[in-house]
Every structure is written in C-alpha cells, then in structure tokens.
Amino acid sequence: MDGHNQSPLYIQRQQQEEKEATNMSANSQDMRFKAGEMKGQADVKTDQMANKASNAAQSCKDSMQNAGEQVKNKAQGAADTVKDAVGMNKK
C-alpha cells in the first residue's frame, strides 16, 4: 500500500464505513424481523376475522332454518284448520 492509503484520515474513514455497513446490516435484519412479526400478527387477525365471519354465517343459517321450520309449522296448522273447517281432516 502507498502512504496515502495508511493515513489516519483514510483509516478513520474506512472504520466509519465499516461501522455504517454493520449498522445497515443490523437495521436490515431488524426490519426483516419486524416485517415477519407484522405478517404473523396479520395472519392471526385474518384467522380471527374469518372465524367471526364463519360464526356469523352459521348463526344466520341456524336462524333461517328456525324461521323456515316456524313458517312450515304455521302453514301446516293453517292447512289443518282449513281441512277441519271443510271436513277433510281425517282423524
């Protein structure tokens, strides 16, 4: 190496560049870690929302089935009432 490359300013600049490169690498790793954490949290939240939607759909289905049974029973009762009124209901 020539004398210029060994000057204190050159060595200080090299050390500073190495320190900055190390910091950038650490920052990059930290950012990747945080991104992974955020993705994990987003996945959990997605699962929670999907479960809520599924539960709501199941509740709606159950309510509709119940309502359908009630309508069917009322219609059957009305039909029986009409048959009784006209004497068509066999007992």
TrEMBL record:
Residues 48-68 have a biased composition (Polar residues). Residues 15-91 are annotated as: Disordered. Residues 31-46 have a biased composition (Basic and acidic residues). PANTHER family: LATE EMBRYOGENESIS ABUNDANT PROTEIN (LEA) FAMILY PROTEIN. This is Stress-induced protein KIN2-like.
